[in-house]
Amino acid sequence: MIPIKNPEAIKRMRESCAIAATVLARLKEQVRPGITTYDLDQIGRDLIASFGARSACYGYESHSRRFPAYTCLSVNEEVVHGIGSLKRILRDGDIIALDVVVEYNGYIGDNAITVPVGAISPQKAQLLKVTEEALALGIKQAQVGNRIGDIANAVQTYVEAHGFSVVREMVGHGVGRSMHEEPQIPNFGRKGTLEKIKSGMTLAIEPMVNAGRYQVRTLGDGWTIVTADGLPSAHFEHTVLTTDSGPEILTIPKAVS
Fold this sequence. Notes:
Blueprint: H1 7-28, H2 37-50, E1 54-55, E2 61-62, E3 65-66, E4 72-75, E5 78-80, E6 95-104, E7 107-116, H3 122-140, H4 148-161, E8 165-166, E9 172-174, E10 181-185, E11 202-205, E12 208-210, E13 216-218, E14 225-227, E15 233-235, E16 238-241, E17 248-249
Antiparallel strand pairs: 1-6, 2-3, 4-6, 5-14, 6-7, 8-12, 9-10, 9-11, 11-16, 12-15, 13-14, 16-17
Helix pairs in contact: 1-2, 3-4
């Protein structure tokens, strides 16, 4: 069953998503060569707390493991779920995915962006551009009456047309009172398949795109997902509300009290 949000839930989703987006925008400003991913995570922790919210990542439990960081920070070949570390120092030419998920007043806001560290290679710049554009195309398909497969197909078609690949082991998802709700939203698939989109759904649409092959593996920490071939990966994400007048992106930075 896919949760349909009532007006009060939508109001709260707007609040949590505005906080998540504002934290992400401010965290992006701190990315620079020489900073550690641990320091970035601590900045994220403080920003989230400054809005009276909490990190939905910190302590999140999966397979009897609790996530030990406040944000997910994934560098170069790390796809998602990277853990901030004093040993990971950002260097000129890196790319880093910043994934911020907050809970505020009972509801979740979820968003991500991948940004350059200093000057990056043309291949990495193209990877970021294509992934962000694929997200926009996926969101455009989040129309009432369409199906989840239309989102998936739009992302896959665009990504593969540019010579990149979409990760298959992780997918987007519904979001609301919990971080992961129905439906699952893959970044690959056929048009006209999967669940029908109705008004009032809140969906975390999130292409994860690899420069090389789509296969991934998990590091020994049990969390960090990396590309199997060691080539870079990018991740962009918005939380989207489906409405009768079209999809509305909720994770837009704005003034939040």
